[in-house]
Amino acid sequence: MKKIVTVILLLLVTAVAQDDAAAGEAESAVEKTAAQDEVTIAPKKSSAKKTVAVFDFESQGIGESESLTFSERFRTEIGNTGAIRLIERKALEKIMEEQGLQQSGCTTDECAAEVGQLLGAQNMINGSIGRIGNSYTVDVKMFSVETGETERTANATYEGEIDGLLVEIQILAWEIVGMEAPTKLKLQREGDTALATLAVMDFEGRGISMGEAQTLTDRLITELSRTKKVILVERSTMSDVLNEQGYETAGCTSDECAAEVGALLGVDLMISGAIGKIGNTYTIDAKMFKVSTGAAENMKNITYQGEVDGLIIEIEILAWQILGLNPPKSLITKKRKGMAALATNTPLPKTKGGAIMRSMFVPGLGQLYGNHGKSGWAYLGSETLFIGLAVMGMNNYNTASTDYDAALVAYREATDIDEIALQKAATNDAISRMDKANSMSLTFSVLAGVVWGASVIHSALVAPNELAHNKTAPLQLAYNPITKNTELTFNFSL
């Protein structure tokens, strides 16, 4: 009997234990389900962007339709900032309709906050546009729906035609979210709308130092400005944008990165490129593309052989070509002079012909050209002296001739014997002085001619001994970087 009771008790204990285990498993399952449900219904993490609704601007002194137009433009531009999550106007109107409200009647912050709570917005923006005489004022405020505290305000005063407010409204949309307006909008405010806006990324250096690449980029920017065909964004502005976005100038070399920077700057065009070195050859590859589409507007490449400083003129010409413009003649001439200096790498040669032609132009100049300083200055001094004396003789002749004419007239008009004799003597004296002056002028003119001829002959005699080592072949084969062909050139040095 005792054994039977013991067995029954054991069976009861086992059953209870099994029930407790089942209950525990059930409770665990319920807890897991509850946890899963909790996870399922748990709200998602809030986005970093705030949810914002914008009321129609209150109008004071302008038409309702105009005020609505400005409000819509403000909403569009604030959406373009990408800094907030904008609640659509339709959703705002639906909530207000359900509450029996109209935007025109919901002008207080308390009313706007109530609407914002119904919309689930974190912030509300309202504002007003007023007119005083010929001036317009715009005041915008963004406040917290939860606390009702004003977080940021922005305002603008504009004088001019009412359509000019569109730009001011767009700029305020950026300022109210704490961002700087794109350069394009600022330029529109200043009236610079005809020209495209352009920014230039630092060229990537491959085989040259970063400093050299940046220097050449700066020269490109300077020359682009000289074209007066684009509006350039300042380098400091672009650097600020890169820093704000966590970019390094040296690391932003891809087209994608350049396009992103261009979009942040609000420019129409971007230029990026690279400068490389292979042996003694340099390459420049540049690309200009539209920021809006990413499509290439123009691409240019240059191959250059020579010293690295020769890249300066190449980059200056590139600035014009990439905009589709013909470089100024001064740049082309500068490049050709650089080519000639590169081909010879020596000063232009001095020749016999050059010495002779200089002596024919000015006596003694050929000798000075040929490094015969003493003889050159002797010829030049003698020629100057003789020409000066010849001119003096001519002046004396002219003076004596005038005296002769006056004495002759007086002689013919004289009636007194003594007067006649006096004027006759004066006439004869004038004739004598004329003869002497004429002789003086002729003599020194001949001497000046002799010195001139002697200078030419002497320069021809001494030039070969001193200048023969500088002779170069008049016909040479040379590479022309402009045409990128080998050409036959003719050289004649003077």
Can you tell me about this structure?
This protein is of the alpha/beta class and 494 residues long. It folds into three domains: 50-181, ABC-type transport auxiliary lipoprotein component (Rossmann fold), CATH 3.40.50.10610; 196-327, ABC-type transport auxiliary lipoprotein component (Rossmann fold, 3-Layer(aba) Sandwich); 352-470. The chain is 55% helix and 19% strand. The chain has helices at 2-41, 64-80, 89-98, 109-119, 165-176, 183-189, 210-227, 235-244, 255-265, 311-321, 329-344, 352-361, 365-369, 373-413, 417-467, and strands at residues 50-54, 58-60, 84-86, 123-132, 135-144, 150-159, 196-200, 204-206, 230-232, 269-278, 281-290, 296-305, 475-480, 485-490. The strands form three sheets. Strands 1, 2, 3, 4, 5 and 6 form a six-stranded mixed sheet that branches. Strands 7, 8, 9, 10, 11 and 12 form a six-stranded mixed sheet that branches. A hairpin with a 2-residue loop joins strand 4 (123-132) and strand 5 (135-144).
Features:
494 residues; alpha/beta; Rossmann fold; 3 domains; six-stranded mixed beta sheet; 55% helix
What topology does this entry show?
Elements (H helix, E strand, L loop, with lengths): L1 H40 L8 E5 L3 E3 L3 H17 L3 E3 L2 H10 L10 H11 L3 E10 L2 E10 L5 E10 L5 H12 L6 H7 L6 E5 L3 E3 L3 H18 L2 E3 L2 H10 L10 H11 L3 E10 L2 E10 L5 E10 L5 H11 L7 H16 L7 H10 L3 H5 L3 H41 L3 H51 L7 E6 L4 E6 L4
Parallel strand pairs: 1-3, 1-4, 2-4, 7-9, 7-10, 8-10
Antiparallel strand pairs: 4-5, 5-6, 10-11, 11-12, 13-14
